[in-house]
Structures
1.
Amino acid sequence: MNGLREQRGAAIELSRVSKAYGSFKALDDISLQIQPGEFMTLLGPSGSGKTTTLNVVAGFTEVSSGTLQIGGSNVVGVPAHKRNIGVVFQHYALFPHMTVGRNVAYPLRLRGVGKAELETRVRRALDMVKMADFAYRYPSELSGGQQQRVALARSIVFDPPLLLMDEPLGALDKKLREWLQLEIKRIHRELGTTFVYVTHDQEEALVLSDRIAVFNRGRIEQIGTGHDLYDAPETLFVGRFIGDSTVLRGAARSDGSSTALDVAGETVTVPRRHRDTDRPVMLLRPEKLVMRKPGVDRSDNENRLSGTVSEAIYLGSGSKYEVLLRDGSTGIVRSSLTDQSFAIGDAVELCFRGADAKLLADDSTADTTLT
Amino acid sequence: MSAGAARAEEDTGSASRRSLRPLALALPALVLLVAVIGIPLATIVLRSFNDPEWGFQNYVWFFGTPVNLVVLQRTFTMAAWVTVVCVICAYPYAYAMSVAGPKIRLLLTLCVLIPFWVSGVVRTLAWMILLQDSGIINMVLRAGGFEGIRLIRTQTGVIIGMAQILLPFMILPLYSVMKGIDLRLVQAARSLGAAPPRAFFSVYLPLSLPGVYAGAIIVFILALGFYITPALLGGPRSTMLSTLVQNQVLSLLQWGRGGAMGVVLLVATFLLLALAGPLMRQRYKLAAR
């Protein structure tokens, strides 16, 4: 314990890490650098390798190849109990035969901390998660959210420079999850510890993280801030996984400075060239699309696609529409309260500026992995 | 928490109506127990007081005869040793069963159960062949240049034989507790800084204790009343109470004295269980959480 707040998180560097189980590659050449004190989220669907990555860092899983550095020293081959890392599990993993207080004291006892200091630190950790009144309860007497807060206290009480969290809120209901997200954010700010957080919930990732690494099929598709991933996805998978999106596919034509797609007889143009090797698709965020009645307000540099409203969802602050396009795909549009409202079955045109569309390489796995 | 609340509600909801139904289900077994255990037991207790005449003379004889007390003490000591040997052998075995894949688990389960299906007499005779002075163990020892050891007609021989026969009663309750232990708790302990032995002793062992207690009670009680194995494998210095009972009843036709011995054993067992009870209940409660 340092009296001054000089305690800092550890930097982590995974370099070309692979993990194979027989012929199955759980991790395929992963490289990831995490800054001291950063909140990094590993986001992806189940089986994408995010939990394997966490287990590799924790020391529960040995890498097949590659190097792993924590706080500047190589930890490949160092057993889990010598890594001094806090881990919070989805299933809480509180010791059922110990009270809350003894659970939180456990890592301190292992480190031979004296009685007086032990009590102070246990109390401080329980205070931090607002569970100080429960020190003499057994885990079975607590709700899921309370258990997870105790687990969090237990994993920070020994001041680890790195805290790993494996879908810690996965078993909790939505309201509690949202509140605990804010608690976790606060604790991260107060501690200055490096947090690595695994989730499959993109909203949770956006709420919590400094940066997000998006995993798919044992690889990292993109690393960036939530803003980067939403506004500038590098792959179709990332674009589909983060936020809502409309994906347009069709025969592509490219001339020097722009690319045109033929979407079921209607042509849309983007003022960019696509790479020759790729089959291009266009990705559009809901707020970049404007929905109008057919034939109204034409302007020349605007792309237009015709379709039919297939779903209208009232969100309070606005509405979300799903529009069935001519080629059978679905467009997603968000509108504010002041905009004109539409009903299911209305014929509409979706309009957007070419510059707002992302031109990405098609990837058939992007759809299958999401479902 | 909500599951617990729901359960509590269910319990209080219609307790009176529910309490009779399980009793009906248990009726056939209850009838059988009363017929084959209750009545003979009552008879034995009765005879200990009225055979050959009413009074405490059988108990006066039992506690007034030093050899009886020696044998009584020896019976408890040997039962304790058998229990200890069973715990030591069964614990790693049950652990292996609980973590093994389905095929190995089946094999291990069969290895426990197959000897279980062979009669105790047959197994005791098999142990005689192994343990006797010219038996396989001593042959191997002598072939290896060691001196032979005396196993048959010793307490060691009896303990070995009884432990082997009673082992399944220790393994099965241990296994059923161990397979319910979440091994991820051990992983959590490791992440908090516990080296593997420490993680075992501070997390796994306490959670497995209910199984140890359950198995130990069954083995201990069965060992107290064991007759065939001590009779066949033992010698005069390893006589257990059951042999004395048999002697009084079948050779000397002293039903009253045999009955008094049986009652003493029964009461001593109850006393022991009453002492161990509170400790165990507490452990159970904690581990069940």
2.
Amino acid sequence: MIYYVAAFSLILIGAYAVLVKKNMIKIVLGLSLIDSGVNILLVALGYINGKTAPIFSNPSLKAEGMVDPVPQALVLTAIVIGVAVTALALTIVIRLHDHHKTLDISKIRELKW
Amino acid sequence: MRKAIAVIFLGIIGYYLLATFFNIPFGIARVLDGVGFKYLAMGVPDTGAANVVTSIVVNFRGFDTLGEVTVLFLAATGMGALLHHREPMKRSRQNASIIVKAGARILFPLIIILGAYVFVHGHLTPGGGFQGGAIIASGFLLMFMSYRSYHVNHVVISRVESLAGSTFVIIGLFGLVYGHSFLANVLPLGTVNTLFSAGVIPLIYIAVGFKVGSELTGLLDTMLKTVK
Amino acid sequence: MYFDPVLMIALPLFAAFLIPLLGRVSKEIPKYVPVVMIGFNLYESIMMLPHSMVKPIIVIIAAWKPPLGINLTIGALGNVLALIISLVGFVVAIYNVRFVQKEPTEKYHMLYMLMVAGATGMVLTGDLFNLFVFLEITSISSYALTAFIRDRNGAEAAFKYLLIGSLSSTFVLLGIALIYGTTGTLNMADIAEKIQHVDSKITIVALILLVTGFGVESEMFPLNGWAPDAYSQAPTAIGAAFGGIVVKAGVYALARLIYTIFNFQGVFFFILIMGVITLLIAEMSAIRQKQLKRMLAFSSIGQMGLVLIALGLATVRGVEGGLFQMFNHAMIKPLLFLSAGYLVYYSGSKDISDLDGMGRKKPLLSFFFAFGAFAIMGLPPLSGFWSKFIIISETIRGGFVVVAALALFGSVIEAVYYLRVVGRLYFKQPNESEKTKYVHASAILAMSVLALVVLFAGLFPDMVMSYLKPAATELVDKTAYIKAVLTAGL
């Protein structure tokens, strides 16, 4: 259960950064914190007490002694998507900084928010 | 004020979500007829890969992985489009000290080999194309950080990227032509737990490894070029 | 005769990977790749139509039967939407051939093609997590395309869009986590079977999370803050494509969720109310806009509000009306956007007040714009009339008289602001003329195709409806869909 709490702490810290922080880099950091939180949550959902990683590297391992492999596969996908979004977000921040010479999001308000 | 509202708002949402997730007991095999346990039972005999996560990522849910590779490709493309012909910022990137430089030279080939090892053995050990690719990119990052003038050839990178990506789809199309469905395995499964096993899984993972490695390296290079 | 439908997704991805190589051979090739690939998708979706109307086509991927592997489930609904998406995508791709001048054009075409492929994947897939992956493909390419012009406001709009979009994808992932944690499966039909046995405390939260997540792409209030900026700051063709492609895929995901996967009656009323609010707020905002494209964007949100009302009715006839409205919106909004893009270009200003007298200077463009405006307002012989008529009469039949009155009120507001623009085009004295460049033939072709489709659908609504009826039935009665997936063999 502590894993759920940890995952949600990360998600909420990230969401707090996205909502409150003015610096765009910090907002992007918040987004990737949220991603990590969700990923931890997914892996925690697949864990089964006392069981091991789903790799049959030696014959003594049995399928009964292994955790659910699907969440791990999903997390792999989710991580890659997170990386892609972060990279694109940083690129847009670079562009915004070029145009406005500031990272403060409260000063970039030409369009109505 | 704004902070207080955010904290209260997030607190309420977080509380309800957490309360919901507490209804799903942690660490207990809850859904016995779910697909997860079927994968565990079928993974080794039916795909030949000792690593069940790999067999899910590349075979059972291989279509997701194709999408995933595309997402990364999109990020690289989008970044290239948005930073096209951008004037570099006027700030100097410092050369690292001699110790870092000498160390980086020694470590760089080892990191590349480790990355290659990880993606070639993706069906046997923890790891795979994404992890191996990320390790390779970290090797390049080390070089970018220690040598100011170090840069990669973007033409080569984009060619590797294109070829690796199309290899993935071509392997899938072979499955369609010879095995009745896209991404179906068309090669013999071989002996489990040996390097040449698991049919097309290692081939796809090698392609993914090249693709992810070159894409992440390209991303890093594009980002660093903006701080010259 | 159709080819394996998986090619509709695999080939565009393949082509996108190859574009950098092809671009080295000749600078001309990348322009035509999206036209060819999306043209192929158009062919496929037309050819599959007679088959998917009878029963869903199940495409197995990687030789694993549905609950195990990912599969494409192409029912009537998915097929109709794939057809809409590829038709709009094809037309806009033709427009793109000459319109896109801004470097790097090669990357523009790649991003555009992947956006269309992602949306196609969203409407075809039968797997919840796969839906998420395609959602991300669609939205990441949209973020990049929004900022493609690389000016101040483009980047700002893209950042806003990205922020809302990635928060929404977090919601989707959390919802998927809840569903997988309780049902142990990701196949949508399989989930629909198993979710009945799950504690409703958990499923309702999963439903809220997923509806919030997909509500962003389907422009549901209050998650549509990105839309006006993204529509107005993105290149014209992309603004057109958002309405016809991205939003359609988002609405499809929403409909699939509330009708097929979950089994809550209460959610329909919620969607109905959200639809009314979305419609009214969007139309009120649209009438206050000074910029043409922003006005179109708000009008687009309003149209989606109408679609949500129709989906909230949960009757076959109502859903049919909603699908017809989606079809109309997908054809008319690109027509309006493409003509508006040229009008804005020739008047040299984004403001509506500078369009005076364009009807004389640019008769053809103004005609297209006026035609689109009349169609979307719902003037009787044109197709917008039929969909609005069905939705509003069905709302009254469902007993929601107040909702019907509000929807009519929204339509009146819509008529007012469109007529205001059309009036300016034709009944005002033009300013001194500056630019007199001609319109590209490919743009005229693209707009004529859309206008002809709208005219045709308006004259023969029964023919369109005959294809929408199986699609609506598939949504309202999910048993056939579930049975087709779970009994699929190799």
